[in-house]
């Protein structure tokens, strides 16, 4: 039996160490582990449940289940809710199953040979066991930093089952493999956040210069391929130094943020507005001819002029100068930046609050 366990454990460890796509929902990236466990234990189903809040659990949410179609989320659980993507997943409330929650929270595995009689699972009688046809359960805790994060439930439907120590040890291994996979998912999510931050201007939330360079590289090659025009609008706030000097840097920051929001409302989602630095911004407009870019710039200018910046009781109005150019697809992008910068310089010389097209 010991040999059999080490063989099965080895298989499970190998499977769970394989690289999987963790960008999707829970069922997809836990699927291989629980299906392997189901097969090895010869059990009817395995489900994975996670606490909604690791420190103050109120609910256990069923995030994966071998009953669901091959690692997919059943369609009636799917939600567009970004705040709570698990809103429609099945869940169990602490208040309905206090004994079971306490048992799981203590971190000890539950081998309920007869689930209807075992003291840790008997409160499932009527509500969970019979509707799901479950008669025997082997539940092992998923840990994170030594704290219970959730539980792997191995559930049998064919009557009472005597769980051996070997099977308990194997089920604990399934929980450990899930724990590791969940950690990989967490690291991936952190990496995504860092990537976003690396391309974002911290003050305004707009894209930064690093993103702009990446974006323009891709857009230039796309526009070269399909022969369309890429345009750029550079914007520089007028007499911004006076605002900082008169009201302070904090108010200057508020101005930069409200100005950015105002511009974003005018631009299309496929346009890229980035903060080059200080009070200087650049909008890159894909598939836009110079005339049309000039119209967009004029629309932006008018919107900025009409914008009333609100900060407490303070009401402020600003203007900006605009330089518009067509991006030279055959030249390095720095050339187009120089062109746009030169146009802004001309707008400043022409009295500010105007658009110059070059
Ligand atoms: N509040 C705030 N101010 C900034 C930030 N970055 C740059 N500035 C300020 O922006 C001002 C830019 O001043 P100038 O380059 O003289 O330009 P300006 O006053 O807008 O004058 P013109 O462009 O000629 O109309 C300086 O006072 C900078 O300190 C920032 O992140 N927050």
For the biggest sheet, the summary is: 6 strands, antiparallel
Give the integer mean of the pLDDT values: 94
CATH-defined fold name of the largest domain: Beta-Lactamase
Distance between the termini: 81 Å
Tell how many strands the DSSP assignment holds: 13
Order of helices and strands: HHEEEHEHEEHHEHHEEHEEEHE
**Total number of helical segments?**
10
CATH architecture of the largest domain: 2-Layer Sandwich
The level-1 CATH class of the largest domain: Alpha Beta
Q: Which runs of at least 5 residues are low in confidence (pLDDT < 50)? A: none
Question: Cα-atom Rg, whole angstroms?
Answer: 30 Å
Helix content: 40-55%
Shape, principal axes of CA atoms = elongated
CATH superfamily of the largest domain: GAF domain
Structural class computed from helices and strand pairing: alpha+beta
Give the strand order of the largest sheet, numbering strands 1, 2, ... along the chain: 3-2-1-6-5-4
The domain count comes to 2
- The fraction of residues in strands falls at 15-25%
Protein name: diguanylate cyclase
Domain GGDEF: 228-358
EC number: 2.7.7.65
Cofactor: Mg(2+)
What is the secondary structure topology, with strand pairs?
Layout: H1 2-17, H2 26-41, E1 45-51, E2 59-65, E3 91-93, H3 98-105, E4 110-112, H4 129-132, E5 136-144, E6 147-156, H5 165-198, H6 209-226, E7 231-237, H7 240-247, H8 249-266, E8 272-277, E9 280-285, H9 290-306, E10 308-311, E11 314-317, E12 320-326, H10 333-349, E13 355-357
Parallel strand pairs: 12-13
Antiparallel strand pairs: 1-2, 1-6, 2-3, 4-5, 5-6, 7-9, 7-12, 8-9, 10-11
Helix pairs in contact: 1-2, 1-5, 2-5, 7-8, 8-9
The structure holds guanosine-5'-triphosphate.
